[in-house]
TrEMBL record:
<dbReference type="InterPro" id="IPR038274">
    <property type="entry name" value="Atg6/Beclin_C_sf"/>
</dbReference>
<dbReference type="GO" id="GO:0006995">
    <property type="term" value="P:cellular response to nitrogen starvation"/>
</dbReference>
<comment type="similarity">
    <text>Belongs to the beclin family.</text>
</comment>
<dbReference type="InterPro" id="IPR040455">
    <property type="entry name" value="Atg6_BARA"/>
</dbReference>
<dbReference type="GO" id="GO:0000423">
    <property type="term" value="P:mitophagy"/>
</dbReference>
<dbReference type="GO" id="GO:0000045">
    <property type="term" value="P:autophagosome assembly"/>
</dbReference>
<dbReference type="Pfam" id="PF04111">
    <property type="entry name" value="APG6"/>
</dbReference>
<feature type="domain" description="Atg6/beclin coiled-coil">
    <location>
        <begin position="73"/>
        <end position="198"/>
    </location>
</feature>
<dbReference type="GO" id="GO:0000407">
    <property type="term" value="C:phagophore assembly site"/>
</dbReference>
<dbReference type="Pfam" id="PF17675">
    <property type="entry name" value="APG6_N"/>
</dbReference>
<dbReference type="InterPro" id="IPR007243">
    <property type="entry name" value="Atg6/Beclin"/>
</dbReference>
<protein>
    <submittedName>
        <fullName>Autophagy protein 6</fullName>
    </submittedName>
</protein>
<dbReference type="InterPro" id="IPR041691">
    <property type="entry name" value="Atg6/beclin_CC"/>
</dbReference>
<dbReference type="GO" id="GO:0045324">
    <property type="term" value="P:late endosome to vacuole transport"/>
</dbReference>
<dbReference type="GO" id="GO:0030674">
    <property type="term" value="F:protein-macromolecule adaptor activity"/>
</dbReference>
<dbReference type="GO" id="GO:0043548">
    <property type="term" value="F:phosphatidylinositol 3-kinase binding"/>
</dbReference>
<dbReference type="GO" id="GO:0034271">
    <property type="term" value="C:phosphatidylinositol 3-kinase complex, class III, type I"/>
</dbReference>
Amino acid sequence: MPTLPCQRCQQPLALPASTSSPSGQLSSGARALLAPAAGASRNATAAPAPLSRPLAHTAALQRLLAAPALRHPLCKECTDAALKLTAAESEQLRAERDALAAWQAEVKRAEPGDEHLHDEIRQLEDEAELVTQGLREAERDRLDVEAELRALEQEERELEGDEQRFWAQYSELSLSLAKLSSQRDALQTAAAHDAAQLARLQQTNVYNDAFSIGHDGGFATINGLRLGRLPGSAAPTEWREINAAWGQACLLLDTLARKCGVVFEDYRLCPKGSFSTIEKLAGDKAVYELYGSGDWQIGRLLQSRRFDHGMVAFLECLRQLAAWACARDAELRLPHAINKDRIGEASIRLQFGSDETWTRALRHVLLTLKVLLSWACRRDESSTAA
């Protein structure tokens, strides 16, 4: 029995006896089955002769059989496998064919007509015109914005210049303000000092400062000068001090009379320091000394009498000033009454009197002068305030 190998798995295939001759050669049918495999390449490229339609189909089948994808003969198992593979490929090709046909139908349905294309073109042209117009407007806006930006930059530069000038002026004004503030503070300090000084001076009475009346032990003093003599004193008073004290007392009385506008009757004060005098204007005109001496010569005795007359005249002038003041101020109260040569029951005469009585009378004189001085100052302050 003749055998052939399977062209896929090379297993021997049993062929029927009719496929070979007695000589062991293949029959003409078997050779015809195997011949296309040998000459497939030659027949596949050969151009078919012009034939009728049935013959053309037959020729095409022969060409397909002459160039198969699988070589044969095959065994049954390989043939079944080849059939399954061929069926799967056929199914895939049919699916691809259906998808291609559906796509072609969709493309044909989606193809627009000429009128539709013209409308779409016109619509696109209109949109393009609108976009172009919008671009032109945007370009104009851009140019306007650029011009405005340039104007703003110019304004910014001007403002920067103005700011620099402002800060320069501000610095100058700040320095000027600091100087003026310093001057103002200095002036305010000076004004406050002057105001305090003025208040202090307003409260200060120049008469009180010029004529300070006090006491030192049993003596009355004026500007630190003791007026009077006391026996047995630890520091006896010299006549130079007494005379100077009388000069200050005469000056004070004359100053108060001038301040109040009082003109004494019959007498005129002549303050001359330690050698002050009083002039008698009425009757027997005379000049009385307001200074004394401790010398007991005859001439000195006569001077002592004039000294006593001078002290009595001084007391009379003091009485006139006190009367004038009491007439203008009912509330004024003097500490001692004055009657001729006595003040407070103490005689002011030194001759034929004791030093103690004389010194007490002099204390009363200075005390009365102090009261009149205070009253005149208060009266002056009241008139100034009014």
